From TrEMBL:
Residues 556-635 form the Carrier domain. SMART domains: PKS_PP. Gene3D superfamilies: ACP-like, N-terminal domain of ligase-like, NAD(P)-binding Rossmann-like Domain. This is Carrier domain-containing protein. It comes from Filobasidium floriforme.
Amino acid sequence: MHQPQQFHFQSMTEMVEVRAKETPDKEIVSVPDKQFKFTSYTYKDINEGADRLAHYYHDQEGLKVRNVGDVDTRLNTTIIAPSAIDYAIHELAFAKMGHTLLFCSVNNSVAAIAHLLKATTALYMVVHPNYLSNAEEAVQQITSEGGKPPRIVAQAQRQVWRSDEAVEPFPRALTPEQEAPLPVFIVHSSGSTGFPKPIVLSHRASAFNVAGTGFGLEAMTTLPLFHNHGHACFYRAIHSGKKLSLFPTEIPLTTNNIIAAIENARGVKGFYVVPYVLKLLAESPAGIELLKGFDLVTYGGAACPDELGDRLVKENGVKLVEHYGLTEVGQLGTSYRDFENDKDWNYIRFSGPQVKSGVADYLKFIPQSDGGSFEVVVTDGWKGKVRSNTDDGSYATSDLLVAHPTIEGAYKFVGRLDDTLVMVSGEKTNPVPIELTLKGGSPYIAEAIVFGAGKSHIGALILPTELGADLHHRELYAKIAPVIDSANAEAPTHSQLMPEMLIFIPAGTTIPRADKASIIRPKVYKMFEDLIEEKYEKYERGEAALPGEEINRRRLTGEELERYVSGLIQEVAGSTGDLGLEDDLFDYGLNSLQAARIRTTLQRELELNRTILPGNVVFENPSVKLLSGYLEAVATGQSNALRETLDADQMKAMQTLVEKYSHFAEVTSIEKKAPEKLTVVLTGATGSLGAHLLDQLLTLGLVAKVFCLVRAASEKEALQRVDDSLAQRRLAGLRERGHGKVEAYPADLSLPDFGLPSDVLTKIQESVTTVIANAWSVNFTLNVESFEKGNIRAAYNLLNLAITSRCGRPADFFFSSSVSAVAAHAGAINAEVVSVNPADAQGMGYARSKWVTENLVAIAASTRKIRAETFRIGQMVGDTVHGVWNETEAIPLQIKSAQSVGAMPELSESLSWLPVDLAAKSMVEIIIGEQRRPLWHVLNGSKQTTWPTVHKALREAGIDFKVVPPREWMQELRNSSSDLQANPTYKLVDFFGAKYDSEVVTKRAGYSIEETSRASPTIAGMPYVDEAIVGKFISAWKTTGFLQ
């Protein structure tokens, strides 16, 4: 395991600039979009991006900057924005400008924002558009109180800092030594008190705290960057040189989404989370398997429940480590240990591996009156300490720990001296202000005690006064409801009380109190432990009724159910904005706590056929229409009907998308002779087929130029990704070819201008003769609407590019589709025609999106009189020369089971395998050929392979295995090792189970290739994928180590 690096940087700006100078092209952070396509950024990208932003805010927005040598002026700025890569670049940009940046949580109330602005005397407030109204209200509040508010500055858009143009380093005002003692960041305590407290972090302390506290692993975090834990994760990556992948904040935090993010990020060995994420993943076998696959899983920000941690560590072998520290003092210890022999995951060590050297020398453990716990105190002199709260300069943490019974120097966190409740999500609730509001605002409440430590939401014990002693609980709640509303209005969302989480205890009950009449909170919680746990259990089952009410579930259907669901969502979200039936609830602003409340209300108020709704039911069905359809199907026990309803909705959505995108630009009329040579725009060049298409195109003298539009942060990265893709397929690289035919540009295909600089776009528009739309998201779980922005709209934009070409004629357009677009066709043969029946598409969003786009291509051809054609492509396999085949696809993983499981299924199905190089060759033959038709079938139509051929080739390669019936193979796969590194087939156990657990064989229609064979000699002469070609696949896999 990587050993911590020693601290040596004086400032955060120095750290980033030195790293960018040492290893400018090293990728250090990776950020996904909604489709989990990751974009990586290098040290150079981050450093130069910060320079660009600093120049922008100073030159364009007129923000002040620190003068050379000035160590006295304080320039404080607040940022309110979502957690994203842009947030991190802003942190560095303002550090370069000499500002101190306050990270204002987006969950803060207006009052809390105003308080922080006044407390930090902020000059500026950088605001994302989503939070502008709150920012403006906070400014108005400061103004009305006679204060001087900060100037609101709109957050710069991403294109400001993402550029390939050279940028001058932002001028340094101070040396690192001068910067060291100055404040660089301000974080704040929880807003649970109503007035969060700012905590100022200096350059020196920040640089010290992130040095040597990483674990030497490429990792992913789900933590937002405006939380100090997430912020520290980012800078630990900067310091250690180990790439950090961020979970997308615009995507719901569900098990499936986390798994998808991890799989797409690639190379992730560590996982940094709060206990809430551990709880979420532990609810499903797939989530536990994901956690087991990491070299390290760390949590922080809250305590992890013992039962959960024990189940993960002791029963499933998860390498779980607690990250212990505080904002005021930095990281102090971890529970890193010998994972094989030490299962005490919740005992923190203050010396040893993965702990800062010497920290134990600065710690004191103060015994408490209970005789078993100690308060941790950090003494003066510790470099990571930024605040003192004792006369001798120490910081008393209020954290209570107990010593391990046998391991010296190991301590377990058990609570806090103060009353803060740390939720399972890591959010904190201070119960005292809530309790004071309840007691002080109602004559019916004698005592209120808020509970919820380690839970996802809070509740309260309510002791009535004599005035309320004889009231029915329903009447009592009606009396206190206004004060509950008042308490909630002042609290952040995670600290709000739900009426069903109130527990009324009999008037006159004796509450444990200290001599000073304050309640003894631990004793109260112990006294009412059973009642509290019963309340949470009922809440989870939807049986926690409103006070004094009986559970009276209703059966709703159709529009009535949709109106109910819509109203409930708007009520819980506190929004009066329009909510369409198909609007995404996450985009609407729903958070996880609100989703949990909706789920519980649905469980309580609806008749659901005794079904317990999944915890993530709202985000798994993220629209009013989807959620209502799911609920109705559950209530009636008609899962098949639900499937049919969803299918019908999806087919309607397909037709809606065709109509939406069928109105194209007009043909550009330019009197200009069309060029004799081809200038091609190619998307998807970094994939297997795209690489082979590029290879084929570059061998043609007829091709003058190929513009590759790819996902990348810069032109350099775009070109490198294309070159790497060629190398991965063992094809000649761009430098080897030496003719400069290829230009690669970072592009966002969902934008009409593709996000290209205007001069580049003009160059392409003036010369393009051929457009090949070959990029598509490969995700078999999304619905068709999820393919709209990044895929269908992208194809539409590319069609418009072809239509409006100014090369002398409209450009020819070719779309790479899939046989799945018509795989459900009821006939015996699929003809080489575009399907107009959406039911022909296979029942998944991927296939349906291909069907939609096939129709758009046909409409463009007929309405704009251009050559626009579709290649409907079959099952591609490795190439015929080198045998390179993507090892993460289902068929290679099935073949891998011969070795990892020692068995393969006995299958009689014929395999219409199409070598990828021959697919590309046939497509290029048609592209440069004379024949025209709307659609071509690019597949192996007759010379099919069989599984026995594959088995024979494997055995000839020295791999010994047995062939068993499919259901027996499934059983052996389920019983095999879950170590995905040794047995990657295991990760598709559910996928294969859906195929082979049933004995029903689905007969698929065939595909005609008559017309395509006339246009393509390669399709007409397609070879049989025999043992020799299969042997090349096996050889390639052995070279990479996929097969042994």
